[in-house]
Amino acid sequence: MQTLAQLVGSARILVCVGRGGVGKTTMSALLARQAAASGRRALVLTIDPARRLADALGIAALTDEPVRLDDPTLPGEMWAAMLKTDEAFAAILRSRMPDPAERASLEANRFYRFFATSLAGAHELAAAERLHELATCGRYDLVVLDTPPALHASDFLDAPKRFHDALDSAAFHWLTGGKSGGRRGIRIGIGLGLVQKTISRFTGTEFLTELTEFLSQMSALMEGFKTRAAETTALIRSDQAHFVLITAPASDAPQSVSESAEAMQSRGCRVSALIVNRMMPPVALPANTRALTVLLQESGLSKAAAAGLSDRLRDSASEAARFAEADEAMLRQLEQRWASTLTVEAVRAFPQEVSSLAALDAIRSTLFPAPAP
């Protein structure tokens, strides 16, 4: 079993998963930052539509094209990008349809626009394609993937296989004549004059023409989609890819972690680490409230006001201590269940919103402390 530092130093892909609100995006950026600090070329790619990554890095915005975060203090490189479905599909077309006129014709087709922006699963398919491209292009030693909440993570994991299966379906082979290489394979409307005329009465001939053209043009791309879908599935399940579960203190956190880990493992994914984020730090209760009252009086408060404030501060500290104890109990429960198979790390709650590289480094130093001289 590797430590988290070893995973960051050797993995090719780290996929961060967990439910919403646990700090996945911050942890994803932190892991990429640590990889760059250890001399690697690291990219953090978010496929979460929430667009939190730019905020965590303290930059205005991110695009589908990776941008390097210049930092002369890092021996390696840190890059960041955010998946935008339409831009990802546009890049796919540019690489696989060299004819500008043919590409422009497809991009103008209403069925393609729906496919690339609104079709269920299109975002996950684009994410899988983008991950494959970035992980195999040779520009990066490590790609850290920030996924949407756990409810949707399985959609991303299953997208390549679902798409591969759909392209192998009997219905698609019938529509394309069992071919994938050109327009002559399209059967829709051929020999189906009566059906075509009936449909045209309701949709118009333009509708069928656009549909036929869409299927015709897409058919030439299908073998590439199928090949990369299979390759992405194999890549995600390879020993070069590791999944990092992110959670935060909550009464149902142990159950949520178990469900996520089992869901990933059932898909053949290698779950290697668990990060318990936003742990309440230990709280030291004041030993002598009388001394606190005196101190408050010396600051200018009346005796009654100082005594009342002292009591309220002690009550607040006692409540915080109870939260901290509950968090520690939950951490021990998770360690008891997972420490034998996963590396388990705890991250204390940061006192403010993470919105800069400096804040990111402050948290990183607690998770990856510098070795003693």
Number of strands: 8
Structural class estimated from helices and strands: alpha/beta
Main sheet makeup: 8 strands, mixed
Q: Give the strand line-up of the largest sheet.
A: 3-4-2-5-1-6-7-8
- Please name the CATH topology of the domain at 4-155 and 229-280 and 349-367: Rossmann fold
Residue stretches low in confidence (pLDDT < 50, at least 5 long) are 179-196
| Strand residue content | 5-15%
* CATH H level, superfamily name of the domain at 4-155 and 229-280 and 349-367: P-loop containing nucleotide triphosphate hydrolases
N→C terminal distance: 26 Å
State the share of residues found in helices, binned by percent. Answer: 40-55%
> What form results from the Cα inertia axes?
elongated
Give helix and strand order, one letter per element, not per position: HEHEHEEHHHHEHHHHHEHEHHEH
Mean pLDDT: 81
Number of helices: 16
